[in-house]
Amino acid sequence: MMRRFKPADLPETLxxxxxxxxxxxxRARLPLNIFEPRYLAMLDDTLKSxxxxxxxxxPLESRGDGPPTLxxxxxxxxxxxxxxxxxxxxxxxxxxxxxxxxxxxxxxFTPYRRVTAAWEGFERDLAxxxxxxxxxRPAFLDLLGRYFEAAKLSSxxxxxxxxxxxxxxxxxxxxxxxxxxxxxxxxEAPRLAERRxxxxxxxxxxxxxxSSGESGPVQ
Length: 219
Hints:
The chain contains 6 helices and 6 strands. It has helices spanning 37-48, 137-151, 157-162, 165-175, 180-188, 192-211; strands at 13-18, 29-34, 53-57, 73-84, 90-105, 113-118. This is Lon N-terminal domain-containing protein. Residues 14-207 form the Lon N-terminal domain.
């Protein structure tokens, strides 16, 4: 059974994995292939902790020789599966637990980055689920079909029709080829309803951009 976290269970200091374009959302599942030595060390240390949490966060574009600045909001995921390959990589899955704000970076001797995390304002992430009372599945799937056609994407429509609204919206938010800034906007949407409104706006914009003849990938 998946462990249920309470606010008091969330750590003050959190190891973070800065990864552009990678979106983790509460109660969603994110697979990762870990191979860099610093992140292998991070995972080894994380597995020794009681919480087994890693903060997924997007970095800002680097403007110098130093490490890139981290965005102000990320999401912590718990390591819920792990396998090790013969060549020393870790194939893991994180299950999203709670978003956090970065209060500051922790100086130290670890090869990976750590932050002081503020969890206030995201307590709803710890609930078993979120709901979107205004969700119109037929209208949403119609828009999604037009977006997939414009983006030349394919999907398992039977699974999409049967998925519950939170899994559907969050999975699409994580998997669709949106730009980094757009992924961050989806992360920062306060509730599921606002995330659905945001992803609908992004899909409408992508469809309109392709219809007007703009070149480049649909984002």
